[in-house]
Design goal:
single chain; Aspartate Aminotransferase, domain 2; Aspartate Aminotransferase, domain 1; 2 domains; 4-stranded antiparallel beta sheet; 14 strands; 39% helix; transaminase activity; DegT/DnrJ/EryC1/StrS family aminotransferase
């Protein structure tokens, strides 16, 4: 993934520096408002990363020790880690093969009386079935946190992914479609929840540092609860505001490149590329391909691509196979393990050319002929 950063972002960051206000301030507030509008949420709360956003989302829902939170193992490890941050127990659920996402059935298979919440991931930008999962978790009386780290610009049922979520967390890491370097956002519709999230990200203060400095009178702040320093800087937000303007064009370009990959890969047996689900569209933050009867093993394919100058990556990781989760009771996650073992992510970014795609697919075609 190569982030699309240009002179506009450089100028915006420089203007923030010259303004003298580089910590969380007016640019962060504007970025929050514009991002929330873009994704169809009532309120945005900027944070230092999607990981810290997931942590705050669980705090907001009151999840803690003794609770279980269902998560997909097929996700970056931060999804599971956030559960441990609040002292709860992560419970790994399997995913469906086509989208890499949790379903009502895979969640229900591991749900127990201790289940307090689910973190469902819009995996690689492919939206999960928002209607089905929101209804099921409502019926079960458990919380749903939407890990939308990769989902800016994706849609579900004609709405932006995350629209209508109780709480969703987003990432602006350089591997995402839009970036602020590091940084994230939490979106909610409830104004009281947004206010608490703002306190939680800023040490629990009842008045923000920006409001304190803007006041013409002395402000004696109070600290209402034990909280965190999860703030975003105005420099990051300045870059993010420029990036928001680029998002529609970037998503359109990625979908065009993905469509061309689909055409080129169609004649190669043993390769199954990720596609839009029936209920939505993906931003193709990741373009993964499942090896299904391909004559060459995944790691050999990656090695051959690397030897010929192509930077492909392994498929999405499985957290339950990592040493950090060796203490978790063994679970049966056959689809997860197949996806992490037998898929790879092909290059897809704004600088990718048709010649690049022809070259990449040409190597895959050669390997298929072995």
């Amino acid at each position: 993934m190569i982030p699309m950063l240009g002179e506009e972002e450089a100028q915006a960051a420089a203007e923030a520096v010259r303004s003298g206000w580089v910590a969380q301030g007016p640019r962060v507030a504007k970025f929050e408002q514009e991002f929330a509008t873009l994704v169809g949420a009532g309120h945005g709360v900027a944070v230092s990363s999607c990981t810290t956003g997931l942590h705050l989302a669980l705090v907001l829902l009151g999840v803690g020790p003794g609770d279980e939170v269902i998560v997909p193992s097929l996700s970056f490890i931060a999804t599971a880690n956030a559960v441990r941050y609040v002292g709860a127990t992560p419970v790994f659920a399997d995913v469906e093969l086509a989208t890499g996402n949790l379903t009502v059935d895979t969640i229900d298979a591991v749900r127990t009386p201790r289940t307090r919440a689910v973190i469902a991931v819009h995996q690689g930008g492919v939206p999960f079935d928002t209607v089905a999962l929101r209804k099921a978790t409502d019926d079960w009386g458990i919380g749903l946190v939407e890990d939308a780290a990769c989902a800016a610009g994706s849609t579900a049922y004609g709405q932006p992914a995350g629209a209508g979520a109780t709480v969703a967390a987003w990432s602006f890491h350089p591997r995402k479609v839009i970036t602020t370097g590091e940084g994230g956002m939490v979106t909610v519709d409830d104004a009281d929840q947004a206010a608490r999230l703002r306190r939680l990200r800023e040490h629990g203060m009842n008045v923000s540092a920006a409001d304190r400095h803007a006041s013409k009178q002395p402000v004696l702040e109070a600290y209402l609860e034990t909280a965190y320093n999860y703030r975003m800087t105005d420099i990051q937000a300045a870059v993010g505001l420029v990036q928001l303007g680029r998002l529609p064009g970037l998503v359109a370009q990625r979908r065009e490149l993905a469509a061309r990959y689909h055409e080129l890969l169609a004649g190669i047996d043993g390769l199954v590329p990720v596609r839009d689900p029936a209920y939505g569209t993906t931003n193709y933050q990741s373009f993964w391909v499942l090896l299904d009867g391909f004559p060459v093993a995944r790691d050999e394919v990656l090695a051959e691509l690397a030897a010929r100058g192509v930077s492909a990556r392994r498929g999405i990781m499985a957290a339950h196979l990592e040493p950090a989760y060796a203490d978790v009771a063994p679970v049966s996650l056959p689809v997860t393990e197949r996806l992490t073992r037998e898929s790879l992510i092909l290059p897809l970014h704004h600088a990718l050319t048709a010649d690049d795609q022809d070259y990449i697919v040409g190597i895959l075609r050669e390997l298929a002929g072995r």
